[in-house]
Amino acid sequence: MRDVAVIGIGQTPIGEHWDTGIRHLAFHALKAATEDAGIEKPDALFVANMMAERLSDQAHLGALIADFAGWRGIEAATVEAACASGGAAFQQAVRAVGSGMIDVAAVVGVEKMTDLTGAAVNSGLATASDADYEQVHGVTFVALNALLMQRYMHEYGVGHDAFAAFPINAHRNAVNNPNAMFQKAITLDAYRKAPMIAPPINLMDSSPICDGAAAAIVVPLEMARSLGRTPIRVLASTNAIDCLALHDRRDLLTLDAALISASKAFEQAAITRGDVDFFEVHDAFSIMAALSLESSGFAEPGCAPEMAQEGAFDLGGELPIATMGGLKARGHPVGATGVYEIVDVVTQLRGDAGANQVKDAEIGMTQNIGGTGATVVTHLFSNN
């Protein structure tokens, strides 16, 4: 396998893009990424998306977006892995370039969630769960995460306020991200007063429904250097799965797929957890941030909320997370999220994060989670 690197990134602001079609969102992100990379046309395009067939009546996104970008004749495909689609698509690009079969791969994650409301969006999100044993009972995706949060609070004797530090940190970081959906800080009082969605998950525990697209260009490391670009090396790209249904889990409060995926990533990169300078965690819900941190080995079981309260995961803490706002405040256009995480990591490792810059950042990690932990894709990156 060849060493590979990211040489270009692009993104659209996350929000409610009612007047912009799904192909247009993807095109804007890809145009920014190719200009950043200094290339005109990739050899292959990998499109990450979860719900276009349901919410936009559009399948066949690989060909649609490649054609709209003016890239007829290249290879193109759509990758779906629920909310982990972005990470999974990026992994396919890494493998294609690393294998030597492709020299320049473009990845774009795109999702439009706001053209429809209410039941249609909730129904689409619920497809990440088990249709025969969870959806059939009318359980929503937020309700499944609420079950996990209830169990966590019971098992470890943790109060609801303990989770507030996760969204407070995310919103504080999003203030300095012009592409974030919510560029406004929140307080503990605001967290406490937020409306309940599915107890104990309230509005501030949950990432928003939104639209957006993010893109990255992947090439062999040697090509990146010959093009005169600053390469951000991909140290590891791993994927692991668990069962979809919560009742089949070995342990409700351990994301086995995260544990396996993260462990494989550290082994692949030949580094330890202590070498990671910051972590773009999949904080779709506050409980998922805690479980991801604990299952990946950055916190002992039951301790992540307390560590968050103590500032361990703030920009100046021992392991900064959600450095540009995370899913909670930057936004969570589900199929695009994993690519947004990668854009944030590359921005940090280039030293371009401005007021949110992690000091002396050399190694960054992303973790993209599909469903309630059924698919977990982990990536490690370095600027050395």
Report the total helices: 14
- Supply the CATH architecture of the largest domain: 3-Layer(aba) Sandwich
Strand content: 15-25%
CATH superfamily of the largest domain: Thiolase/Chalcone synthase
Termini, distance in Å? 19 Å
Mean pLDDT: 97
List the secondary-structure elements in sequence, H or E: EHEHHEHEHHHHEEEHEHEHHHHEE
- Report helical residue fraction: 25-40%
What does the main sheet amount to? 9 strands, mixed
Describe this protein's structure.
With 384 residues, the protein is of the alpha/beta class. Helix content is 36%, strand content 18%. Strands 3-2-4-7-1-8-11-10-9 form a 9-stranded mixed sheet, sandwiched between helices. Strands 5-6 form a two-stranded antiparallel sheet.
Quick synopsis:
The chain is of the alpha/beta class and 384 residues long.
Give the tags.
alpha/beta; Peroxisomal Thiolase, Chain A, domain 1; 2 domains; globular; 9-stranded mixed β-sheet; 11 strands; 36% helix; 384 residues
Q: How do the helices and strands line up, and which of them pair or pack?
A:
Layout: E1 4-11, H1 22-37, E2 44-48, H2 52-55, H3 61-68, E3 75-79, H4 85-99, E4 105-111, H5 119-126, H6 141-156, H7 165-174, H8 188-193, E5 196-198, E6 201-202, E7 212-220, H9 221-226, E8 232-241, H10 256-269, E9 278-280, H11 286-295, H12 304-309, H13 326-330, H14 337-349, E10 363-370, E11 375-382
Parallel strand pairs: 2-3, 2-4, 9-10
Antiparallel strand pairs: 1-7, 1-8, 4-7, 5-6, 8-11, 10-11
Helix pairs in contact: 1-3, 4-14
